[in-house]
C-alpha cells in the first residue's frame, strides 16, 4: 500500500512539472523549413498524403540534436513530412528527473499526434516515430499514451540505441516495447557492461551492428558507440546496403552459422515480415554500410 502511494505521488509530481507548452514541434518538407507548428495550429504546409516522421532527441539535447539534420534532409528528399520534437525543457535536467517525466511528456505528444490525425485526416498508422536514447523510450511512452487516450496505434517506432540506465530489467510498461506501435525496430550499438544503451530486444526487429556492444569500429570515446545508431539509421534512410542476418548470437554470426538465414536491412525499408534479432558488420567511417 505504501509503495503504491509513493508511486502515485511520484507520477503526480512528474505530471505537475510538465505542461503542453514545454514541448515544441518544427516542420520540414518540400514546402517549408523549420516552421514551428502547434497542437491546435498545424499551419498549411503539412502534405497530407505524405509520410509523417517524428524525430525525438535524447538526454541533454534539443532541436539542434546532432542527428536531426541528416534524418530530416534524407526524409525530405523522399517527400516526407518531418516533425522535429524539442523537449529540451526537460531533457536538460538531471538524468533521473528527465526519466521520471518521460511518461508525462509522452502524454502531451500523444495528444499532439491525435489532434494532428483528427484535424488533418492522417491515420496514425502512417506516423513513424524515430527516437534516440531517452527519446526511444519517450517514443514508446507516446505510443502507450496514444493507445490509452484514443485506442489508436502509431504505425512505427524506431528506437535508436534505447537508453539502458534506469530501463534495464524493468517492466515493459516502463520502457519502449513492441506493443507501442504496429511495427517497432531497434538498432543497438552500445549495450553491455558500461554501455549507455540497453541490452535487450525490445522490438519486432532488432539490429545488433558489430554485436551491438560499446566498441563500435572507429569509436574510442564515450558516447561514440551510443551515437552510432542514429548515424547508421540516417544512412539507411536512402541506402539498402545495411544487410543483416537473423541469428541467435553475435558469436554464431561470426562463426558463419547464420549465413543462410533470412536477411533484413537497417533503415527506412525494414522488412517487418521477417522478425527477430539481426547481426551485421559495418565500416569504421561513413559510409558505414558494407552491402
TrEMBL record:
Keywords: Secreted, Signal. GO terms for biological process: lipid catabolic process. SUPFAM superfamilies: alpha/beta-Hydrolases. Coiled coil: none annotated. Pfam families: Lipase. One of its GO terms (cellular component) is extracellular space. Residues 1-16 form the signal peptide. Residues 47-288 form the Lipase domain. One of its GO terms (molecular function) is lipase activity. Transmembrane segments: none annotated. It is found in: Secreted. Belongs to the AB hydrolase superfamily. Lipase family. This is Lipase. It comes from Popillia japonica. The lineage of its organism: Eukaryota, Metazoa, Ecdysozoa, Arthropoda, Hexapoda.
Amino acid at each position: 500500500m505504501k509503495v503504491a502511494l509513493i508511486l502515485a505521488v511520484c507520477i503526480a509530481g512528474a505530471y505537475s512539472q510538465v505542461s503542453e507548452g514545454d514541448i515544441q514541434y518544427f516542420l520540414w518538407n518540400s514546402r517549408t523549413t523549420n516552421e514551428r507548428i502547434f497542437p491546435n495550429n498545424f499551419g498549411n504546409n503539412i502534405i497530407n498524403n505524405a509520410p509523417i516522421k517524428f524525430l525525438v532527441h535524447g538526454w541533454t539535447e534539443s532541436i539542434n540534436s546532432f542527428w536531426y539534420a541528416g534524418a530530416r534532409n534524407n526524409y525530405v528528399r523522399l517527400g516526407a513530412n518531418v516533425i522535429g520534437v524539442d523537449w529540451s525543457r526537460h531533457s536538460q535536467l538531471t538524468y533521473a528527473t528527465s526519466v521520471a517525466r518521460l511518461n508525462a511528456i509522452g502524454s502531451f505528444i500523444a495528444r499532439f499526434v491525435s489532434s494532428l490525425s483528427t484535424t488533418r485526416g492522417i491515420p496514425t498508422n502512417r506516423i513513424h516515430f524515430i527516437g534516440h536514447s531517452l527519446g526511444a523510450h519517450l517514443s514508446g511512452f507516446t505510443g502507450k499514451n496514444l493507445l490509452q487516450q484514443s485506442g489508436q496505434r502509431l504505425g512505427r517506432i524506431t528506437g535508436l540505441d534505447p537508453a539502458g540506465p534506469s530501463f534495464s530489467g524493468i517492466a515493459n510498461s516502463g520502457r519502449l516495447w513492441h506493443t507501442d506501435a504496429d511495427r517497432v525496430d531497434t538498432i543497438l550499438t552500445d549495450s553491455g557492461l558500461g554501455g549507455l544503451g540497453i541490452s535487450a530486444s525490445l522490438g519486432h526487429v532488432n539490429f545488433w551492428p558489430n554485436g551491438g556492444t560499446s566498441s563500435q569500429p572507429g569509436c574510442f570515446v564515450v558516447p561514440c558507440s551510443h551515437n552510432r545508431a542514429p548515424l547508421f539509421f540516417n544512412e539507411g534512410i536512402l541506402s539498402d546496403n545495411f544487410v543483416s542476418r537473423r541469428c541467435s548470437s553475435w558469436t554464431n554470426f561470426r562463426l558463419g552459422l547464420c549465413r543462410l538465414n533470412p536477411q533484413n536491412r537497417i533503415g527506412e525499408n525494414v522488412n517487418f515480415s521477417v522478425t527477430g534479432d539481426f547481426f551485421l558488420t559495418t565500416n569504421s567511417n561513413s559510409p558505414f554500410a558494407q552491402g
